[in-house]
Amino acid sequence: MKALEERIRKDGIIREGNVLKVDSFINHQMDIRLFEEMAKEWKRLFAGKPINKVLTIEASGIGIAAIVAREFDTPVVFAKKSKSINLDDDNYTTKIQSFTHGRVYDVIVSRKFLGPEDHVLIIDDFLANGCALMGLLELVEAAGATVEGIGIAIEKGFQQGGALIRAKGIQLESLAIIESMDESGKIVFRE
Amino acid sequence: MKALEERIRKDGIIREGNVLKVDSFINHQMDIRLFEEMAKEWKRLFAGKPINKVLTIEASGIGIAAIVAREFDTPVVFAKKSKSINLDDDNYTTKIQSFTHGRVYDVIVSRKFLGPEDHVLIIDDFLANGCALMGLLELVEAAGATVEGIGIAIEKGFQQGGALIRAKGIQLESLAIIESMDESGKIVFRE
Lengths: 191, 191
Description:
The structure is a homodimer. Helix content of chain A is about 30%, strand content about 35%. Chain A is an alpha/beta fold and about 190 residues long. The first copy, chain A, has a single domain (about 35-180), classed as Rossmann fold. Chain A has a six-stranded mixed β-sheet, with helices on both faces. In chain A, strands 1-2 form a two-stranded antiparallel sheet. A two-stranded antiparallel ribbon of chain A has the order 6-7. The longest helix of chain A has 14 residues, at about 30-45. The mean pLDDT of chain A is about 95.
């Protein structure tokens, strides 16, 4: 998606270790107008799919997912990263390794909000090694729900996550796929 | 707001210790249509205020804030609950006591995204003792920004937070204020 690629070139900051900071418009400050353009693009890309729920994971996926769900006219369920005393024990659970934060999270979704009747669009801001997405796919499978597709804002095409997901035959639509980047600011997007 | 009060009566679950679970429509599964109605109500209540930014705190505030920001045509900034290696050191920082999770969080907002030019609408799902809001107000004050108002979905009117905030002269608009509730399911809303 041109608008997102241009925004990444303009406002993204590349740091050592293949870190791309997009905190001025995606995951700390959120540009809601841009999110709406992204939502409309996913609406086009997933046209005809019987999506009745958007699934994401806290925290930075939630804003994008809310705007996407508005476009699809569905609720959002966000997977939670740790057990709170406000949650029932009746949850689907998995563990996700976060390389960004250097730890393993327990991730849960209540059984009440995901079931065999659900046709799910998974939304997240980043795809790199695919650990978070694999965890969400496990939760959807445990619920007996159907994954209709996955929408990602920014995919690091030089990491394995995208290939792993596509090899499963799932429709994965990343709006910007980075082939390579370096600290001089050079970014090459996949055509 | 009638629609929210009715939804709380219908789908809210009251647990021991004055816990109100609204995870089927507010803070685990999110009813985006309801969020839009809430956003329009805040738009009406804060009409004429020069709001140029919505501020919230991860995670459950983010979805509501995104829909509200769409209505106000502003970006959202969400305060983060712990330091990630993806964040600069150049942050406003405070500590917030969470009674729900039984711990103290470091809460940060990057200096890049909050400054003297900002007129902020703070949005959150719950107001009880006011600890989270007081923390956000500290961050806004540290940034030299102006608080134009606070929009809360559900206020526990029998706890101190609302009175503390209103005593500061800040326009606080809670869309449902619970005067009392008990485990039989009885809820009394403030008129």
